[in-house]
Amino acid sequence: MNSERQVPFFCPYCGEENLRPASAEAGTWECRACARGFSLTFVGVTRPQRHHPAARSTS
Ligand SMILES: [Zn+2]
């Protein structure tokens, strides 16, 4: 899973679309509207409808 190429469409703080990469570091973005910098991190696939996602062993 390629977690280094997540592209935000909206600033999570002000909702503007005026985003650009903050630096050469992958996953870091800055909003030109509110001047906030942030990074995106993939934390895993979530499955909200499962009650016990870790209960089943898929070996
Ligand atoms: Zn913003």
Instruction: Using the alpha-carbon principal axes, give the shape.
Output: elongated
State the strand order across the main sheet. Answer: 1-2-3
Q: Count helical runs.
A: 0
Could you tell me which ligands this complex binds, including any ions or cofactors? zinc ion
Q: What do the pLDDT scores average to?
A: 83
Q: Which consecutive residue ranges, at least 5 long each, have pLDDT under 50?
A: none
Based on the model shown, name its key terms.
59 residues; mainly beta; three-stranded antiparallel beta sheet; 3 strands; 17% strand; elongated; binds zinc ion
3D architecture notes:
With 59 residues, the protein is mainly β. The chain has a domain at 1-41. Helix content is 0%, strand content 17%. It contains no helices and three strands. It has strands at residues 19-21, 28-31, 37-39. Strands 1-2-3 form a three-stranded antiparallel sheet, with no helix packed on it. It is elongated. The mean pLDDT is 83. Bound molecules: zinc ion (ZN). The site of zinc ion has 8 residues, from loops.
List the helices and strands and how they pair.
Layout: E1 19-21, E2 28-31, E3 37-39
Antiparallel strand pairs: 1-2, 2-3
Offer a concise description of the structure.
The protein is mainly beta. The protein has strands at residues 19-21, 28-31, 37-39. It binds zinc ion.
